[in-house]
Structures are given as C-alpha cells and as structure tokens.
Amino acid sequence: MQRAGRVVALIPAAGMGTRLGLPVPKAFVMLRERTLLQRSVSAALASGVVDQVVVIVPADLAAQIDAEYADRPEVTVTVGGAERSDSVRAGLAASGPDTELVLVHDAARALTPPALFADVVHALRDGARAVIPGLPVADTLKRVDTAETVLATPDRSELRAVGTPQGFTAELLRHAHSGGGDATDDAGLVEALGVPVQVVPGDPLAFKITTPFDLRMARLLLDES
Ligand SMILES: Nc1ccn([C@@H]2O[C@H](COP(=O)(O)OP(=O)(O)OP(=O)(O)O)[C@@H](O)[C@H]2O)c(=O)n1
Ligand SMILES: C[C@](O)(CO)[C@H](O)COP(=O)(O)O
C-alpha cells in the first residue's frame, strides 16, 4: 500500500545517562566535536525520508537547544519526562496532526547510518504498521532468577537484539501510548495491543551508547572513518 503522509522522527534525548557516569545528560556528551543528539538529528535528516524531527530534551536545556535549531524549521524542540516512554509521549504531542508515520530514535544511538531510517520507512510504506530493526544475537543468553541462578537457556535462533529507529503508523503509536504505560521500547506497547511488529535487518553501527565502553567504542569507530 502506498502512503505519502508526513514522516516525523522523535528523538528522545532527555535521559540522564547514569550508566555513562558523566556530569552531562547523555545526549549532550561530545563525540568528536558534535554531541550525540546533533549526530542523531543529522542522521535522521540525511536519510531523506524524514519531514520533521522532534527532539525531546531535559527542561533546563530546552531554551538552549531551541536556539541552536532556530534556523531549522524542520526541527522542533520539546521537554521530556521522567521515563523514556514519557519523553516519547511528549514528542508525540509535539508532532503535527498531519503526521502519518512516526520513527522513534534514541539520541544515544548516535552512529546510526541514515539508510536505516530509510529501511524502516520503506517497510512501513510496504504495508507494515510497526517496524523495528533487529540483529541476531552472538552470545548464548540465559534467563536467571534474583540470585543469578540460571533458570533457562532460550533458543537464540529465535531472539533478536532490537534497536531504533522503530517505526509505526502515527495512529497506532498514539493508540499504544494513549493509556500511559511504560515499556523498554515502543514496540512493546504495540505488541501489548496484539498488533504484529515486523523486524527488519538492523545495523551494528546503531548500537546504543550506554556505558563508558560504548562511548570509547564510538570514538574509536569515528577515528577509523
Ligand atoms: N526519561 C528519559 C529517559 C531516556 N530518554 C532517552 O532515551 C534514550 C535511550 O535511553 P538510555 O540509553 O537508557 O538513556 P538513559 O536513560 O539516559 O541512560 P541511563 O539508564 O544510564 O540513565 C536516550 O537517548 C535517552 O536520552 C529520554 O528521552 N527520557
Ligand atoms: C528502545 C531501546 O533502545 C531498544 O533497544 C531500549 O530498550 C532503550 O533502553 P532504556 O534503557 O529502557 O532506555
């Protein structure tokens, strides 16, 4: 089915990044002269499939980031909430009513290739209502109890490590978030509605910069490029 409506990328950047252990909210950490957020906004716009970017930032940085993007009418800045899902809902509220497709993309996945945004949008335009990038897992995964005793070894051939951008029809994502609720990703809220979620091949460069090791890895990758 062909869809031609507006595509909005929501970029949650309001997290504190406690696992990174730096005195700056994670999205504002510098990665070779540009912040994680700046890199993620650029990647979304460079994809050629995104009409509007909504960045969701901590309240005390909103005026500064708004000024930074003052000459970019395609970039809107809004204030996030306590949990990632709250920040996504703030971004949805700031998206125009004419939005047809929404991509939710972590600012923390700062090295994501623009082509991944296009892959997700193409799968939506082919008719899927929910699309997420996923990669096979290389490690054997164990389910454990609170004492770290192994309970089970899931069959890893059935598992995917999923990232962002996660794409949805705007109608579906608004419905999934309408009851509030929290999930570690947006697809989780859609799954709870019983709607099929399609996995497309992810890209290892879209890894989430979460720990000091990840930040070091990102810097090394940029040095290499
Ligand atoms: N209340 C929140 C929490 C997270 N995020 C964003 O969601 C993305 C993924 O979250 P994560 O990597 O877990 O970031 P943090 O929550 O900041 O990290 P930590 O759990 O280490 O504090 C990040 O771009 C982060 O800025 C957000 O916008 N609002
Ligand atoms: C949305 C996400 O990036 C998919 O892998 C991830 O779940 C976000 O993690 P968080 O720690 O809950 O922010």
Automatic annotation (TrEMBL):
PROSITE patterns found in the cross-reference section: ISPD
EC numbers for this chain: 2.7.7.60
Keyword set includes Nucleotidyltransferase: yes
Enzyme's top EC category: transferase
Keywords: Isoprene biosynthesis, Nucleotidyltransferase, Transferase
Site (described: Positions MEP for the nucleophilic attack): R156, K208
Catalysed transformations (reactions): 2-C-methyl-D-erythritol 4-phosphate + CTP + H(+) = 4-CDP-2-C-methyl-D-erythritol + diphosphate
Pathway: Isoprenoid biosynthesis; isopentenyl diphosphate biosynthesis via DXP pathway; isopentenyl diphosphate from 1-deoxy-D-xylulose 5-phosphate: step 2/6
Gene Ontology MF term list: nucleotidyltransferase activity
Matching SUPFAM superfamilies: Nucleotide-diphospho-sugar transferases (SSF53448)
Site (Transition state stabilizer): R19, K26
Pfam families with a match to the protein in the record: IspD (PF01128)
InterPro entries for this protein: IspD (IPR001228), IspD/TarI (IPR034683), IspD/TarI_cytidylyltransf_bact (IPR050088), ISPD_synthase_CS (IPR018294), Nucleotide-diphossugar_trans (IPR029044)
Protein's job: Catalyzes the formation of 4-diphosphocytidyl-2-C-methyl-D-erythritol from CTP and 2-C-methyl-D-erythritol 4-phosphate (MEP).
Family statement drawn from the similarity comment of this UniProt entry: Belongs to the IspD/TarI cytidylyltransferase family. IspD subfamily.
HAMAP family attached to this UniProt entry: IspD
Protein name: 2-C-methyl-D-erythritol 4-phosphate cytidylyltransferase
Species whose genome carries this gene: Gordonia alkaliphila
Gene: ispD
